[in-house]
Amino acid sequence: MSDPTPEEAGRIRDWIRAEAASKSLEAIRDTVSERYRVLNETMEAFPPADLASTTGDEWAPIDAYRHLVEWNWQIGEDVLHTALMGERPGNPRPTFPAEREALAARLAESAESVWAHVSAADPGAFLDLTWEHPFFGQLNWREWYFFLGVHAFDHTRQLLAMKDSPRA
After folding, report:
1. What does 37-57 look like in DSSP terms, one character per residue?
2. Which of 24-55 are b and which e, b meaning 16 or more Cβ less than 10 Å from the residue's Cβ?
């Protein structure tokens, strides 16, 4: 995967901010849930023998999925703490075994936990607390919550491209 150009990053950042500000928390949850559903369907389409295979210097499908689950878990932790308490724990990203079903369970567990906490939060609280995204700059917890779905969409596209290329 390639990094976005500065122009693309700015356009995507503005879109993330606009969507996160204009959507209800329920609508953001529904967007994230739908993107997770499509991501999981995409992962399920890989035969077990292809999960760990690569082409060139590309990640294997299971590696891309594991990255997504670990990263979204950590961001989800930050989102739920910030939304409820106004404090970002900033815990390190966890490391999970590269096993498809276990990763799917972790992703579902994270999504449920984030929603349980975010749904109890004031949707407008603590929005002044931001933290850095490597491409999109400072985002608040609502923007990061919406970004969980953007990240899933991006890796779904990556996995679809892998599905269409010969595996080694």
Report:
1. HHHHHHHHTS-GGGTT--STT
2. ebeebbebbbebbebbbebbeebeeebbebee
pLDDT tens track for 62-107: 999 999 999 999 999 999 999 999 999 989 999 999 999 999 999 9
Q: What is the pLDDT of residues 132-143, one digit of tens each?
A: 999 999 999 999
Cβ atoms within 10 Å, residue 82:
27
Tracing tokens 């529904």 back to the chain, one arrives at 30
What's this model's pTM, rounded to 2 decimal places?
0.94
How far is Cα 70 from Cα 167, in angstroms, rounded to an integer?
24
Residue written as tokens 């879109």? Answer: 15
- Residues contacting 153, CB < 8 A, separation 6+: 35, 38, 39
How many Å from the N-terminal Cα to the C-terminal Cα in the chain?
18
